[in-house]
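Why does residue order matter? Because the sequence determines the fold. Keep that principle in mind as you read this record.
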Amino acid sequence: MDNVKISDIICKIISKKHGRNFSLGSWIQTGNAVVGEIMSNSGFDWIAVDLEHTEISINTFANLARVMTIYGVVPMARVSENSTMAIRKVLDCGAMGIIVPLVNNKEDAKRAVVAAKYPPSGIRGFAFCQANGWGKQFDEYVKSANGEILLMVMIETREAVENIDAILGVDGVDGVFIGPYDLSGSYGVIGQTDHNLVTDAKKAVLDACKKHKKIAGQHIVLPTRQIVKEAINEGYNFMALGMDTVFISDGAKSVVDMAEC
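Structure:
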């Protein structure tokens, strides 16, 4: 656990390994351990496993978290829902960061924080588990977990954008993670992630993050050098680039295109 310090990201949003002032991660949807190992050995600071939109089980996440920890990559999970048990299970299975979906208001944000924190700050249950070496590092883990586990809430709706100051004002929320496709749907421009309504909403969220000094994250599903550079210049400091399914699809297609030329 010593080689994975999520507080390095929380405190300064810096990947000390690369000397950047932003953090780069990615996304796993397949749940395959080999894919997890390949991605963990590719230079990402963190990798989020998607338990919301996939068939990935808690058992599969636990195995992926083990792989990431071996490679010194921060294991993160987008939980299936904003509930006590969904959050508790991924934390017990080794997540050092969680991304909570559909946080639309202050009350939603508080519910996520309470589920993620040990008493007296929250209601997370105590147990010997993977996260604390099955009890061998129990005392050390319990003392540090509340301060070192990253809690990101997803901003996916018009309501969340309208309540962004209240959400970011909740103690224990470290930052936000924008879901561009869900945001486009909420504004009635499905899939148009570069529509003015979506870009204006994203800017409002980014400005609020700067105001509250919280982490500003987004998923760049189809990354290009230009898009990533623009995001960095705008002030995003926690970016997920692509995902395993996109990498496989793009790689396969490029080989076919090359052969047909």
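The first helix runs from residue 7 to 12.
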